[in-house]
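step=encode ok
step=design start
structure_in=
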């Protein structure tokens, strides 16, 4: 992905963004909560530091607080016009890491899932690709993430702590 800029937008194009680097990791979550929330069989989220998501244009997404399966809630950034969700922030990582909805990228094929999670509740007709790790529930981040991504995550968390 070197040299390729990832850009995204909502459906109406009012909210536009670009990613200043490749994502740290991409989840394809098959939990029933994501199925209900998206109205689809799964959710594909690219995890990236919030300061690497650059808003282009003058329209900022509207942040809506919603419940989550963990009980800690999440903040979903939605276009104020078409209401499409462009990313989420989960309580466990606060405002530090954004879970960008891969489907809002101009070229989602550039961010395929690194892992499939909560496959114990995936739809039976969904076929998982060979060679991509899959877990019935969650997984051990230290085992699955590349070292560079683990370092980026820790650095982002440290920056957030130093600001408080």
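sequence_out=
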């Amino acid at each position: 992905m070197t040299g390729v800029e990832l850009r995204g937008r909502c459906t109406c194009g009012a909210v536009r963004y670009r990613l200043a680097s490749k994502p740290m990791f991409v989840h394809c979550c098959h939990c029933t909560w994501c199925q209900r929330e998206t109205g689809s069989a799964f959710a594909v989220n690219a995890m990236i530091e919030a300061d690497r998501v650059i808003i282009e244009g003058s329209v900022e997404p509207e942040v809506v607080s919603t419940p989550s399966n963990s009980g800690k809630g999440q903040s979903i950034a939605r276009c104020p016009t078409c209401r499409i969700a462009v990313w989420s922030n989960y309580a466990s990582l606060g405002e530090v890491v954004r879970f960008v909805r891969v489907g809002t990228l101009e070229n989602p094929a550039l961010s395929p899932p690194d892992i499939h999670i909560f496959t114990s509740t995936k739809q039976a007709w969904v076929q998982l690709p060979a060679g991509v790790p899959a877990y019935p529930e969650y997984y051990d981040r230290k085992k699955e993430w590349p070292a560079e991504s683990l370092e980026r995550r820790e650095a982002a968390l440290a920056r957030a702590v130093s600001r408080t």
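step=design ok
step=annotate ok -> The beta strands are 6-9, 16-19, 25-29, 43-49, 53-56, 62-66, 74-78, 85-90, 97-101, 115-117.
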